[in-house]
Design goal:
Radius of gyration: 21 Å
Strand content: 25-35%
Structural class: alpha/beta
Largest sheet: 8 strands, mixed
Number of strands: 32
Bound molecules: guanosine-5'-diphosphate-alpha-D-mannose, magnesium ion
Shape: elongated
Length: 360
Amino acid sequence: MQALVLAGGEGTRLRPLTYTTPKPVLPLAGRPFLSFMLDWAREHGVDEVILSCGFMSDDVRRVLGDIYHGMRLRYVVEDEPLGTAGPVRLAYDQGLLEERLLVLNGDVLTDVDLTEELAQHERTGARVTLALYAVEDTSSYGVVPTDADGRVEAFLEKSPDPPTNRINAGAYVVEGSVVGERIPAGRAVSFEREVFPALVGEGLYGFPAAGYWIDIGTPERYLEATWDLLAGHPRSSLPPRDETGSLVSEGCLVSGAHVGPQTVLGRNCSVGTDARVERSVLHDRVIVGADAAVVEAVLAERVRVGERARVEPAAVVGAGAVIGEGAVVGEGARLEPGVRVESGATVEPGARIKAAEGVR
Ligand code: GDD
Ligand code: MG
C-alpha cells in the first residue's frame, strides 16, 4: 500500500517553532513528528510513502532519510505551494502513484483504523473515502455530513454554521483515476474547497473513525498531544516515562532541579538547582538557570532562560532566544528565534516579539 503525506505547509500557527524547524519534523515527545505518522501507516500495511514537501523540504529529508523501518520514502518537492490536492496531481504527473493510495495530512497524531477505512472503501465501491472524526469544536476543520450509508452530503471547510460535529480527519483513500480526472494540473488546488465539494454525489464517502485523533498544528494542541503521548495515548514506541510521567533525553543535566510532571526535555538540556520545569516541552540543548520556573511552555532548541526568570503558560519561545535573569515571559507570549529579553524585563502576556526588537 502506498501513502502520500502532505507535508509542505508553512505551519504558520506553530510559529515561532516553524521558523527554524518545519512542522513535519518538529520534535514531539522527543521524536520527529512524522515518525509517529509513519509508524501508524506501517501498522496498516503501508510500505511506500511519498512525502510531499515544499516549505523547508531539505530539513524534512535530512531528518527522515530514504528508508524508515523498512518503508521506502520518496520526496516530491513543489517549487510553489500547490495546496492540498495540487501536490497529489504533481506526484501523479511524475508517474509515482499506484491505482489506489492513502492521502494523509501531515500533522495528525492518530490511531484511526486505516485498515477498516480501506475495507469500507472496497465494500462501497467509493472513489474517495474520508475518515471522519467527531470533535467538540469544529471551527478549525472541514465539516462533513453524510447519509446513513456514508455518502457525503456536503463538504464545508471551516464552516461557521456546522450541521454536524463530524470533521474531516485528513486521512483519505483515493482512487488514482480521480487524481487524473478531478485535480487540475499545474496550479494550486485545494481538496477541501474545490475537489471534495465537486465530488459530492459522485462516489465520495465518509468513514466513521474512532480512537485517538488530534491535529498538532497549534501550540495548544501540540502541548496537548505531548501530554497525551506521555500518558500513553495513542500507544507508541516511546521510551518509558519517569515517575513524574516525563521524558528526559540523553545528555541532560537536571540534578537538584524539579522536572515534571508531564515534561519533555530534548537532548543535552540542563536545568539548574531548584528550577521548576512543569508540563513543558524543551527541545534540544535548552538551558534553564537556577531558581527559574517554566510552566506549560514550549522552548525551542538552544533557548536560554536565566536564573530566577519565569516563563508562563502557553508561551512559545523561538530557537536561540535568551531570557535574562529574573525576566518574565507572560502567558501566551511568542518570541521569535534569537530574541533577547534583558535581565529583569517583562514580556507582556500575549505579546509577539520579533527577532530584531528585543525586550528591555
Ligand atoms: N505539499 C503541500 N503543499 N502540503 C501542504 C500545502 C501545500 O501547499 N498546504 C498545506 N499542506 C499540508 C500541511 O502541511 C498539512 O499537513 C496538511 O496539508 C493540511 O494543512 P493545514 O494547513 O494543517 O490544514 P488545516 O489543519 O487548517 O485543515 C485541514 O486539516 C483538518 C484536519 O486536521 C483540512 O484538511 C480540514 O478539512 C481538516 O479538518
Ligand atoms: Mg492542520
